[in-house]
Amino acid sequence: MPSAPEPPPGQTIPVRLLTSETAATTTSTFYDQVGGRATFEKLVAEFYRGVADDPVLRPMYPEEDLGPAAERLALFLEQYWGGPGTYSERRGHPRLRMRHLPFRVNPNARDRWLAHMRSAVDSLELSPLHEATLWDYLERAAHAMVNTFDE
Ligand code: HEM
């Protein structure tokens, strides 16, 4: 194939460059789009506010202070949605179903968990698409975590 002719001296060939702005919009993660760390911190803080007053869920959490559990959940969710991989650096592979086996996650516990999470998600005031995407995942994950039907 003949090569393209050289442009006359002094003339340039227009090229479209991928600017950092367009690169950011085409490659940004869900984590970035919803506001990064601050958004996930708020999500878990709101969620654990609900858990702290829940007579079924609160006794399931082994530690006196819910702070470390909130941090683990935030790190996990951040990693899941494309943020930093700190969760796995600290905790290894998530294997969440296995990690929940010591706890009695029945449909009642699941529905309470989801109710607190629903309020927490609402508090973020995300765009409808981001909210639906996040909620769909949380709902499916919570259903998958059920490990007993005993009351
Ligand atoms: C369905 C109801 C659920 C209940 C009752 C429940 C309860 C618990 C409890 C009691 C713990 C131990 C607290 C701790 O020391 O971290 C825990 C840990 C955790 N849960 Fe759940 N959970 C539920 C669903 C979920 C879902 C849907 C997710 C993820 C989307 C999740 C993510 C986590 C994570 C990341 C940890 C920390 C695991 C670790 O690194 O040790 N949980 N959960």
From TrEMBL:
> Which Gene3D superfamilies does this entry report, sorted A to Z?
Globins
Alphabetic keyword roster = Heme, Iron, Metal-binding, Transport
Cofactor (UniProt): heme
Q: InterPro entries from the entry?
A: GlbO/GLB3-like (IPR044203), Globin-like_sf (IPR009050), Globin/Proto (IPR012292), Globin_bac-like_CS (IPR019795), Hemoglobin_trunc (IPR001486)
Instruction: Tell me yes or no: is Heme among this UniProt entry's keywords.
Output: yes
Q: What Pfam families does the record point to? A: Bac_globin
Q: Does the keyword Lipoprotein apply?
A: no
Superkingdom as given in the UniProt entry: Bacteria
Q: Which PANTHER family match?
A: TWO-ON-TWO HEMOGLOBIN-3
Family that this chain belongs to:
Belongs to the truncated hemoglobin family. Group II subfamily.
Q: What is this protein called?
A: Globin
Native species = Luethyella okanaganae
